[in-house]
Design goal:
The chain folds into three domains: 273 residues, 2-Layer Sandwich (BirA Bifunctional Protein, domain 2), CATH 3.30.930; 107 residues, no CATH class; 99 residues, Rossmann fold (3-Layer(aba) Sandwich), CATH 3.40.50.800. Helix content is 40%, strand content 24%. The chain contains 18 helices and 23 strands. The strands form seven sheets. Strands 3-9-10-16-13-12-11 form a seven-stranded mixed beta sheet. Helix 2 packs across helix 13. The longest helix is centred in the N-terminal third of the chain and has 27 residues. Bound molecules: glycyl-adenosine-5'-phosphate (GAP). Glycyl-adenosine-5'-phosphate (GAP) binds next to strand 10, strand 13, strand 16 and helix 13.
């Protein structure tokens, strides 16, 4: 655990030092669980959003993208169930006066057991060396099986109690597991209570006539209320999807873990409208498709797993999370939900407008079912960033900090350096920049020794460094250095564009899906 904490602290400080993420309003001591994306962070975030949009919208003939408003008519949230059912179970520690999410306290307890499993695996790995079979060990080792059974029993009970709204049992579970407040160390807990997560605001000039509004807690409802508009104007035939990316807001009580859980965050969601009765097939389809998208980025198959929900949201008949191994353990990165016809039916009822689809093949109207994929852009950012940050031991007994971002997502694709600040080398380097910047985000640097400049770009995640030297003046060649291998080669300036494109082109990456 200490190691995980250290690694996570490094991630947070690196994100600040290299211009990726700043705390919001830092000069006023910040605002809890609200963050700003800095010059490199904004580029990385945009590249992740584009990578999602291209795979989801541009590459699917039957999926279109929209961009709906954050403010929606307040009845939307009554219909969607968020007014009545969008809440977290909270518990207060009477000694520290600190408030916690009861389910997170239990999940954190389970994470500690999971850490024990990992410890056993690491020990065995050392003992057995090359002959070690991890899968077999996990499936047969009695101690590991015991730990896993304990986790499963706890989570299953938690799921059932939450499902049945049995908050007294959630408290009983916390007491039985002897979970203590991390701050005060005491087990002096209040009862568990539900707390609505939506932010309220007002629309209108005077207090008497102002209308109560909510900041949207998910982007999905903007898609549901526009379902028929898009279907008709786009002449869409079922099955078809509507996608969008945008801000969502939740008054999270357990606001920690950096950009993992924020009060203002961005979602990338897609609602896929299907014929009732086909939801199982499409659930499997989107599980597979979304996992392939993740794996296309090459961040390691072992870092992902599915986690089926025990407790289903008020709208779902099946749900799974794609979990990622963050520095603090496996946690939800994306949700895939079979939402039935809950939302469209509810909007029909509350608006009095028909939201049905006429199926020409079947010659009848029906309310479509919906399969949803929903990923947090900020969480994806954290997954990509934390997975990329590493310290590498080099042959000369030094270490380097390197941010091995997937090249397709890296904010800056290439840095161009003149070896020295004279003899016409800066001019040639700037000419190269002027040419490359039409195609890629590139960066010019002439300060410090070249070795130092390499290190800076390694830590920044830049896949290529290009150095202009005296030989360049004679034969129009430069040195190109690869971030991950640190290999250098001499290439013609005219080849640079193709070399970079091959490594950073979205098509090359998405073709791996
Ligand atoms: N429309 C369905 C929906 O909103 P969700 O599981 O509540 O489902 C989907 O959220 C995704 O949004 C999550 O998997 C997560 O990546 C992201 N997300 C949710 N709450 C978040 C928060 N407070 N901060 C950052 N990301 C969040």
């Amino acid at each position: 655990m200490a190691n995980q904490d250290d690694q996570f602290k490094k991630v947070i400080s690196h994100a600040k030092e290299y211009g990726y993420v700043f705390q919001s309003s830092e000069i006023y001591d910040g605002l809890s669980a609200v963050y700003d994306y800095a010059q490199n962070g904004a580029e990385l975030k945009k590249n992740i959003r584009d990578y999602w949009w291209k795979a989801m919208v541009q590459m699917h003939d039957n999926i279109v993208g929209i961009d709906t408003a954050i403010f929606m008519h307040p009845t939307t949230w009554k219909a969607s169930g968020h007014v009545d059912a969008f809440s977290d179970p909270l518990i207060d520690n009477k000694d520290s006066k600190k408030r916690y999410r009861a389910d997170v306290l239990v999940e954190d307890y389970c994470l500690k057991i999971e850490a024990k499993i990992e410890k056993e695996v690491k020990k065995a790995e050392k003992r057995f060396g090359d002959s070690f079979n991890k899968a077999e060990f996990i499936a047969t080792n009695p101690r590991v099986l015991g730990y896993q059974e304990k986790i499963d029993t706890i989570l299953s009970r938690l799921g059932k109690s939450l499902e049945a709204e049995d908050l007294a049992d959630v408290k009983a579970l916390i007491e039985e597991l002897e979970i203590a407040c991390p701050l005060s160390g005491s087990r002096n807990w209040t009862d568990v209570k539900q707390f609505n997560l939506m932010f309220g605001t007002k629309l209108g000039a005077s207090a008497e006539t102002a209308m109560d509004l909510y900041l949207r807690p998910e982007t999905a409802q903007g898609i549901f209320v526009n379902f028929l508009n898009v279907q008709k104007t786009g002449r869409m035939k079922i099955p078809f999807g509507i996608a969008q990316t945008g801000k969502a807001f939740r008054n999270e009580i357990v606001a920690r873990q950096f950009i993992f859980r924020m009060r203002e965050f961005e979602q990338m969601e897609m609602q896929f409208f299907i014929k009732p009765g086909t939801q199982k097939k499409w659930f499997e389809h989107w599980k597979e498709t979304r996992m392939k998208w993740h794996l296309s980025l090459g961040m390691g198959e072992d870092n992902y797993r599915f986690h089926d929900h025990e407790k289903l949201a008020h709208y779902a008949d099946a749900a799974t999370d794609i979990e990622f191994k963050f520095p603090f353990g496996f946690k939800e990165l994306e949700g895939i939900h079979s939402r039935t016809d809950f939302d469209l039916k509810a909007h029909e009822e509350h608006s009095g407008k028909k939201l049905q689809y006429f199926d020409h093949e079947e010659n009848k109207s029906y309310t479509p079912y919906v399969l949803e994929t929903s990923i947090g852009l900020d969480r994806m950012f954290l997954a990509v960033f934390s997975n990329a940050l590493m310290e590498e031991e080099l042959e000369n007994n030094t270490t380097r900090t390197v941010l091995k971002l997937p090249a397709v997502l890296a904010p800056v694709k290439a840095a161009v350096f003149p070896l020295v600040k004279k003899d016409g080398l800066p001019e040639v380097a700037k000419e190269i920049i002027e040419d490359l910047k039409w195609d890629f985000n590139v960066f010019y640097d002439e300060k410090d020794a070249v070795g130092k400049r390499y290190r800076r770009q390694d830590a920044n995640g830049t896949p290529f460094c290009i150095t202009v030297d005296h030989q360049t003046l004679e034969d129009k060649t430069v040195t190109i250095r690869h971030r991950d291998t640190m290999e250098q080669s001499r290439v013609a300036i005219s080849e640079l564009k193709d070399i970079i494109k091959k490594e950073v082109d979205v098509k090359e990456w998405l073709m791996k899906m």
